[in-house]
Design goal:
Layout: H1 2-13, E1 19-20, H2 21-30, H3 37-49, E2 53-57, E3 63-67, E4 75-79, E5 85-88, H4 91-103, E6 114-117, H5 120-128
Parallel strand pairs: 4-6
Antiparallel strand pairs: 1-3, 2-3, 4-5
């Protein structure tokens, strides 16, 4: 599994933005890898569990992945048009999550936050068109 996990991670390291498991599977197969889609999903889950890749759900509910640019907790600002992603800190979000959890007696609070919008490049293209 380690070699296959490494192959999946390599695809993500060399990708610009988030990629679906199906996209990664198709690229691996096109490159000649003997790997199944289930194995790709397992590799992605293992990589996400140990913090090597980020996972988010798109507006239509699909899980997509990319290699983390930083090893610290962060959130994403994602362009709806081109998929460009910026990792951002969110200290206010961190405080809010802890406060809401504590107000309801929850402990060991975790969260994910994805913010979607249109990046400056796509806005410029849209304005020019």
């Amino acid at each position: 599994m380690t070699n296959r996990r490494d192959a999946v991670r390599e695809i993500l390291v060399h990708s610009e933005g988030f990629r679906s498991a199906q996209d990664i599977y198709a690229q691996l197969r096109a490159d000649g890898a003997k790997i199944g889609l289930t194995t790709v999903y397992r590799a992605l889950q293992a990589l996400a569990d140990n913090g090597q890749v980020d996972m988010l759900r798109t507006d239509d509910g699909e899980s997509v992945y990319r290699a983390c640019a930083t090893g610290t907790h962060h959130h994403h600002l994602v362009c709806r048009r081109c998929g460009r992603t910026v990792e951002v800190a969110g200290p206010a979000v961190e405080r809010w999550a802890e406060t809401v959890g504590a107000e309801h007696g929850f402990t060991a609070i975790t969260h994910t936050v994805e913010v979607f919008g249109t990046c400056p490049s796509c806005t410029a293209i849209k304005s020019a068109g």
